[in-house]
Every structure is written in structure tokens, then in C-alpha cells.
Amino acid sequence: MELDAARLLLSKMGVAPADLLTEPVERPQVPTFTDYIPVVARAVSAATARSYSSYWRRLEAAWGSRRLNEPSPSEIKHLAEESRAQAVVRRNAAENFIAAVRCLYRHAVADRILTEAENPALKVAKPRRLPSPRRALADHELIEINAAAAETGDDPYLDTLLLRLHTETACWRGGVLGLRRRDLEETQCLVYLREKDGTSRFQRCRRR
After folding, report:
1. 174 in Cβ contact with 165 (< 8 Å)
2. Contact, 196 vs 50, CB < 8 A?
3. Residue 53: how many CB atoms within 10 A of its CB?
4. Secondary structure letter of residue 88 according to DSSP
5. Contact present, 183 and 206 (Cβ < 8 Å)
6. What is the set of domains in the chain, with CATH numbers?
7. pTM to 2 decimal places
8. What's the pLDDT score for residue 76?
9. What residues are paired with 27 via a beta bridge?
């Protein structure tokens, strides 16, 4: 039991048991936020970079010349609250800021710049997420939307077709924008949808 606890502690510190038998190796200098943010931005997916870019810019503006091991958990929490207070849409600004900071520090731990125990972002709790205001449309609301689309606009046929696709497949906007002709399987009335976060699926549709 004690041996397992020791192994767990070493793992959290980023130290292998074999490291205890060798001469200590001098660790590289911890980079500044200005130096390291572009490294992480290149390593993550394009979607993640877009989601976190505004928070990383705020982080760089506030702490650009500081090294990753300098800010305390309290400082990170304070900057997250500032981000929430200054955001136009404040709902999840603090939560998203902390997620962006955690992403940065996860890469720093993976790159062996910091150990798990030195990661201050893990000591900052995310704010409690508020219940989503989203709800399903009532039948009469859906009828009204379809009627408005069919009677107005530059291309009522296309508008009603898109509404029908969303209604029958519950697809995201990205699934529609990424749709190609070869994604339609007419024999079984299937449509192949490629949606957010790289997910994809076949969805059945009704024939007209």
C-alpha cells in the first residue's frame, strides 16, 4: 500500500523511480506565456485554437513576460473573474478562461516543463455551470417558422428544405454547411453528417 502511494506521488511529480538512482538533470528554463502560447496554439486542433484564442490573448496581455511557474491559483482565479466581468456574453466566460489556461498547462506538463504538482490551473475550480436556457420548440412554433420561411425570403424552397433537414436529423449548423452531394444515400434515405468536434454519423430522412 505504501509502495503504491509512493509510486502515485512520484507520478504526480513527473518523476520516474529510475530518476532517483541517477544524477539530477538540470531542467530547462520555464518559458514565458508569450513564448509558450504559440507553441500550444500550433499543437491543438484549429477548432480548439479558435475557441481559446481570445482567452490566450488576454493571458498574454496580462502576463506575457511572466514564466509559467510564476502565477498562483489565486491570480488565475482573479484573471478569470476579470474576463467574466469584461465579456459581452458573460455566461461561461470565466469557465472558458479557466479551460483555456488548463489546456496551456496540460501541454506544459506533457512537455515536462512543469510537473503535475506544479500545475496551478488544477487548483482553480471551474465556476458552477448555469442551467442551459435552451428548450425544444413547441409544435405550433415549428409550424409558424416553416410558414414564415415558405412565404418570405429570397429562396423559400431552399429555406424550407434546410428547416426540414434540421427537424428530421437534429443536426448542427456545421453538419448542413459541410454537406456534399455524395453524402446522400438515396436507396436507404440516409444522409451522412459531419459535425462539430470531428463527429460524423448517418441519419435517416423521409422521402418527399
Report:
1. no
2. no
3. 13
4. S
5. no
6. 5-123 (1.10.150.130), 139-204 (no CATH)
7. 0.60
8. 95
9. none
